[in-house]
Design brief:
Elements lengths: L1 H21 L3 E5 L4 H9 L3 E6 L7 H13 L2 E4 L2 H7 L7 E2 L20 E6 L8 H15 L4 E6 L8 H13 L3 E3 L4 H5 L4 E4 L8 H8 L4 E4 L4 H4 L6 E3 L9
Parallel strand pairs: 1-2, 2-3, 3-4, 5-6, 5-8, 6-7, 8-9, 9-10
Helix pairs in contact: 5-6
Length: about 250
């Protein structure tokens, strides 16, 4: 944190120089994490659009971010109805621009009687994405079924600096029960090896991985949270109110 703070003045100077050199008609601030840059651009007289990809909490930090964005920026857009509701402030609600994902040329082959039944997830290893819930559900399901009926894969790196130690402990548990962890991969190639995609997020505005799995034709399971409930509608997959190992495909 100290190192990052010491780099701020030089970074702000470079960003300010970039604005003067390019003189953009519109600055697209991609995520609430770029609010500082958005404010700098706004004060330099540029039109600024904030593209919110987060689920802001109703806490002091969330209220401050919402109020700042609506008071000082020209427009705010969100990636789902859920994220728009979380970003709403003082009677103003963001416009919605949904996320998108490419549709692969070939759909996955849905096997009638796979053995083992392979279940995978794609996400940064984090509490927000429910990585520990995936591991625990895999443990329970493996214990109940036995006979190698199920196989599990996790694609995603423990890249969140704040949760790095926690993430590595989750991966240690995953390894101990036989879950395969792949830090990064071509997701469409992994989908072709799976029989279902699962995303047990605790909070998620509109996950692209879910869109990619659905676009590939892979059966999907998600929790009834935030933007996931807008993606997995009746007939397109399975939604659970509480993620558990008892979900039926």
């Amino acid at each position: 944190a100290r190192r990052r703070l010491s780099e701020v003045p030089a970074y702000v100077s470079r960003f300010d120089g970039f604005l003067r050199e390019r003189s953009p008609d519109l600055v697209h601030a991609n995520s609430v994490l770029t609010l500082a840059e958005a404010l700098i651009a706004s004060r330099r007289g540029h039109a600024v659009l904030l593209h919110a990809h987060e689920m802001l909490l109703r806490n002091v930090r969330g209220r401050l971010l919402r109020r700042t964005a609506w008071r000082h920026l020209d427009q705010v857009v969100a990636v789902s109805q859920a994220s728009a509701a979380a970003m709403a402030h003082d009677g103003r609600t963001p416009r919605i621009v949904y996320e998108a994902a490419p549709v692969p040329e070939r759909r996955v082959t849905v096997r009638e009687r796979p053995h083992p039944f392979t279940v995978g997830t794609v996400a940064v290893v984090s509490t927000r994405k429910g990585s520990d819930l995936f591991v625990e559900a895999a443990r329970l399901l493996s214990r109940r079924s036995g006979n190698g009926d199920f196989r599990f894969e996790m694609v995603g790196a423990p890249s969140d600096a704040i949760e790095r130690d926690w993430a590595h402990s989750v991966l240690d548990r995953a390894k101990s029960i036989g879950i395969t962890h792949i830090p990064s991969a071509n997701v469409f190639e992994r989908f072709a090896q799976w029989d279902a995609f699962v995303l047990p997020s605790r909070a998620d505005p509109f996950p692209i991985a879910m869109l990619e799995a659905m676009a590939s034709g892979l059966p999907v399971v998600g929790v009834r949270r935030d933007g996931i409930a807008e993606q997995v509608v009746p007939g397109s997959g399975v939604l659970t109110s509480h993620f558990s190992a008892g979900t039926q495909f």
